[in-house]
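Hi Y.,

Following your request, here is the sequence exactly as I used it, all 147 residues.
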Amino acid sequence: MSDTPTDTDAGTTRGTETGHDTLNTDVMQWVSAIVALAGLGLVAYPFMFEATEAAIWNDTLVGTAIFLLGGYNFYRLSRDRLASVGVASLAAILGLWALASPTVIEMGSSELATATAAGGLLTAALSAYSAYANNKADVPERTHARV
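Below is the corresponding structure, written out as tokens. Let me know if you'd prefer a different format.
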């Protein structure tokens, strides 16, 4: 048998001899970076489109939180550690809120409502994938386990 992987997908590789899932941290770094940028987009949208005060506060607070959570997981992955499943899950929940918030909060314009919902959908989908992939993966080889 060779040491080459036989089954690959976007974020994980299953080794033939070990039977363990190893995470491609480079791909997951991109996922976390896109989540962080989506958070920045949520912060910017109310200032690009007509917005109510409630929409400004909502998008600014939720976007800032998503940016920080995505940035934290990006930092962890850049240090060859797994992303935090809890942090990714919280970002997914905030993304779901951003997706649903235009139906709950008066946004002020349909453009802002659409942009907020799209940013929330992107965040929820990528963060949920990140949480799933990092939960299923084994620790990267270069990571030192803490006792």
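Confidence is low (pLDDT under 50) at residues 6-20.

Thanks again,
Q.
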